[in-house]
Design brief:
The complex is a heterodimer of chains A (472) and B (285). Chain A is α/β, with parallel strands linked by helices and 472 residues long. Chain A has 3 domains: 15-88, no CATH class; 91-288, P-loop containing nucleotide triphosphate hydrolases (Rossmann fold); 294-432, abc- transporter (atp binding component) like domain (Coagulation Factor XIII, Chain A, domain 1, Distorted Sandwich). Chain A contains 11 helices and 20 strands. Chain A has helices at residues 22-33, 46-49, 55-65, 67-74, 113-120, 153-164, 168-182, 197-209, 227-242, 254-260, 278-288; strands at residues 3-13, 82-83, 86-97, 102-107, 128-134, 137-140, 215-218, 246-250, 263-268, 271-276, 292-293, 295-297, 310-318, 329-330, 335-343, 350-358, 363-368, 388-396, 405-414, 419-432. Chain A is globular and about 75 Å long. Chain B is an all-alpha fold and 285 residues long. Chain B has one domain. Chain B is 68% helix and 1% strand. Chain B has 12 helices and 1 strand. Chain B has helices at residues 22-27, 29-42, 52-72, 82-103, 106-109, 111-114, 123-153, 169-193, 196-211, 226-231, 233-246, 253-284; one strand at 8-11. In chain B, helix 3 (52-72) packs across helix 4, helix 4 runs antiparallel to helix 11 (233-246) and helix 8 runs parallel beside helix 12. The longest helix of chain B has 32 residues, at 253-284. Chain B starts with 7 loop residues before the first strand and ends with a helix. Classes of the chains: A alpha/beta (472), B mainly alpha (285). The interface between A and B is large, with 50 and 42 residues. Strand 5 (128-134) of chain A pairs antiparallel with strand 1 (8-11) of chain B, so a sheet runs across the interface.
Chain lengths: 472, 285
């Protein structure tokens, strides 16, 4: 076990406590001496407290100054894990990592991923719990840490390298490889302050890429640089893991997580919500967001997506016949995506459409009832809708979807090009493969966002002879 | 290929703060070297005079002191030529001041670095203290040049003489470094939490200088207040410099003993405060 984490927890104090002025610290000490709970005075302004004889008048003073409202609002979304002015950024986090694993960590903003990384990289201390890292560790939370603008690129490579934990000898031996990777050889002896931001980032990442630690902890730093460079970076990360090193990778880029990681953690509000297969982790993560599975409807009077022209009532994904117990769709059957909407006024030439994306956000297709997109003819295309309720159904052919999770975006526009309704990633559904699709044995996962049946035909070329051992 | 790695990092709350992480500092010695180089070199990139600035400052200060305090205010200088008296005091004081001032805002000024990567934080103050030695040595050489001039070309030769105590110079430098670093570590721990202290820093340094016999000799302090002056560890250091290089200074083994004791206390408690702050300052700075 190369990384073992047991019951890690981290709490932060809310408000200005501890980080204010000395005067406030003395005020706190004074209040504590008088027997009052110092946490009461969260975010206090001294001038408001003066003259407050008791908690009630103190509260009134705070409300007047707006300080109370502020603290309440910031903690509304995390009210579940806030206690007495403390925020539990991490709670009861435990997991183990074996050598050679690439562990991905995903979660909403504010879930605690960066806090976990900060603790594992020893930048801050946990409040409770314990973690052990066995092996040389290097962390990459930012590229270009410690770069000094007045020093040249060469000098900064050494400075940055030693900050990240390499020794001078190691840097010298890898220097050529670093410069080569960065691609900025002609500029290596000019001061870094004259570099463009792209050059800066390339050099910084080149140094970090050659760290060669046993354990590498990476925060989302790959979101920099142009496409060619990003591809190089991802390639380098995969190399690192294939060399037997362990990587812990925090990212929002779900596609790269699924592509690179052998295992994935989902962090939600300070706890580990899931630990296992990256694909499933991404599905869970998206499920934790607002997408509702399968069927979403808005009742009369309830707030719903609408404009002056049209109101969305229901969007659902279904199939004929027996529904699968898990609520998934069978990819071998036709899948219907239905949008039910109300035209609030007459005269609009409404146009329903959908976007289909794979669960990592990769776009799959876009479709509408427009002639170029429509296999059949829709009677209501380019026709003035009268007031009333309508349903549009899009049929996705059988044997088309892959065994994946998908996201549906519902759109209602009109033939003039205006988009009345655009609900992104409104619904999610999962397509399953029930096993008798004739897939070649041994294939565990079919590549691609769709899995259409295409026609293949093989025939022997004329003039073949059996002793053929070379190219004709 | 599995190797039994001997490196193991245990992360848990309430790390011991009584220790100096020697092993880690040695492991990061290359970083120490590069930080020293960076501190030293970055000051002079794109300047014309370069390292000459190191010499200009004490020179100008000495001139000002000589004119203002010796000619105008007529403060005694222990029978020594005023230029030498003030230059000696200034050069010694400057090193301490640089150690103190440079390390006093460590957490706040390096917050962006500390928040992104781990390395033993004590390395930053160490680098500052060590890189300041080079400037000190240059200034000391300039001072010796002036001493030589006075010895050879003026009649004051009889008033100034080297004392054998000069042999202690390296240790005294170390003591100054520990003293400056100790006070600086304390300040950085305090400024990390309470910003008031950052504003007070310049004031504190100035007041400290006046409490030290830099522009006046210890012999001029009224008897009843001498013990106050001795509480200041830098007092005996500055007097020692004047004694060792110029022959006249009020310093004794007891004085130095007190100074060393106070220095050690300040340094050790400073390291404690620093280590304690280091653990979680990223959350509050």
């Amino acid at each position: 076990m190369v990384i073992s984490v047991e019951n890690l927890a981290k709490s932060y104090r809310l408000g200005q406590i501890g980080a204010g002025t000395f005067r406030e610290a003395i005020a706190r000490g004074w209040h504590r001496m008088r027997g009052r709970d110092p946490e009461e005075w969260l975010g206090t302004l001294d001038s408001d407290v003066e003259g407050s004889r008791d908690y009630a008048s103190f509260r009134r003073a705070q409300e007047r100054s707006g300080a109370w409202r502020e603290t309440k609002e910031t903690s509304r979304s995390s009210i579940r894990h806030t206690e007495n002015g403390y925020l539990w950024a991490l709670r009861d986090v435990s997991f183990n990592v074996e050598q050679g694993e690439i562990l991905g960590v995903i979660g909403k903003n504010g879930a605690g991923k960066s806090t976990l990384l900060k603790i594992l990289t020893r930048i801050t201390e946990p409040t409770q719990g314990r973690a052990v890292l066995r092996g040389r560790t290097a962390s990459l939370l930012e590229v270009g840490t410690g770069f000094h603008p007045d020093l040249t690129g060469r000098e900064n490579v050494y400075l940055n390298g030693t900050i990240l934990g390499m020794t001078r000898r190691e840097i010298t031996s890898r220097f050529d490889a670093i410069i080569d990777f960065s691609g900025i050889e002609p500029f290596i002896d000019t001061p870094v302050k004259r570099y463009s931001s792209g050059m800066y980032v390339r050099l910084a990442f080149a140094v970090a890429a050659h760290l060669e630690p046993e354990i590498l902890l990476v925060d989302e730093v790959l979101a920099v640089g142009d496409i060619a460079f990003q591809r190089k970076c991802i390639g380098k990360m995969s190399d690192i893991s294939s060399e037997g090193r362990t990587v812990l990778f925090v990212s929002h880029n779900l596609a790269s997580i699924v592509a690179m990681c052998s295992r994935c953690l989902v962090v939600d509000e300070g706890r580990i919500a899931y630990d296992g297969d990256p694909d499933e982790a991404v599905r869970r993560y998206l499920g934790l967001n607002e997408s509702v599975a399968g069927d979403i409807r808005w009742d009369e009077g309830a707030p719903c997506p609408e404009t002056d022209a049209v109101r969305l009532r229901r969007v659902r994904v279904y199939q004929d016949g027996e529904a699968l117990p898990s609520g998934a769709v069978d990819r071998m059957r036709e899948t219907y995506i239905e949008i039910e909407y109300e035209a609030k006024r007459g005269g609009d030439h409404l146009m329903p459409a959908i976007w289909l994306k794979e669960h990592t956000g990769t776009p799959v297709l876009c479709s509408a009832n427009v002639p170029g997109f429509n296999l059949i003819q829709d009677a209501w295309y380019d026709r003035a809708y009268e007031k009333g309720i309508y349903r549009s159904v899009c049929t996705i052919p059988a044997c088309f979807l892959n065994a994946r999770g998908y996201l549906v975006t519902a759109i209602i526009g009109d033939t003039n090009g205006m988009a009345h309704i655009h609900e992104e990633d409104l619904l999610s559904f999962v397509a399953n493969d029930l096993g008798d699709s004739g897939r070649p044995r041994g294939a565990s996962d079919v590549l691609g966002v769709i899995w259409p049946k295409l026609s293949w035909r093989t025939e022997a070329a004329a003039g073949n002879d059996d002793s053929c051992g070379g190219v004709v | 290929m599995t190797t039994e790695s001997t490196v193991e990092h245990v992360i848990e709350p309430n790390r011991k703060w009584l220790t100096i992480p020697w092993r880690e500092i040695v492991a990061y010695r290359d970083l120490l070297l590069f930080l020293i180089r960076r501190d030293f070199v970055a000051q002079f990139k794109q300047t014309v005079l370069g390292p000459l600035w190191f010499l200009l400052q004490p020179l100008l200060m000495t001139l000002v002191y000589t004119v203002v305090f010796s000619r105008v205010a007529r403060i005694p200088t222990d029978e020594l030529p005023p230029v030498l008296f003030y230059m000696c005091g200034t050069v010694a004081w400057q090193y301490f001041a640089k150690c103190f001032g440079g390390t006093a805002t460590t957490f706040v000024s390096q917050a962006h670095l500390f928040g992104k990567v781990y390395f033993p934080r004590l390395i930053v103050p160490l680098a500052i203290v060590i890189s300041a030695v080079f400037a000190f040595v240059l200034q000391l050489l300039m001072f010796l040049g002036f001493v030589a001039y006075f010895e050879l070309f003026t009649g004051a030769a009889s008033a100034i003489q080297f004392r054998p105590a000069i042999a202690w110079l390296p240790l005294v430098i170390v003591q100054m470094a520990l003293c400056g670093m100790g006070a600086g570590l304390w300040m950085s721990a305090l400024t990390a939490k309470y910003r008031d202290f950052a504003h007070m820093l310049a004031l504190m340094a100035q007041i400290w200088m006046y409490l030290t016999p830099v522009i006046y000799p210890l012999s001029a302090v009224p008897d009843g207040l001498v013990w106050v002056s001795l509480m200041n560890p830098v007092t005996s250091i500055v007097e020692w410099f004047r004694y060792a290089f110029l022959g006249a200074g009020t310093v004794s083994v007891a004085h130095m003993g007190t100074s060393i004791a106070v220095t050690l206390v300040m340094f050790l408690t400073g390291v404690l405060a620093f280590n304690r702050t280091e653990r979680t300052f990223v959350d509050t700075v």
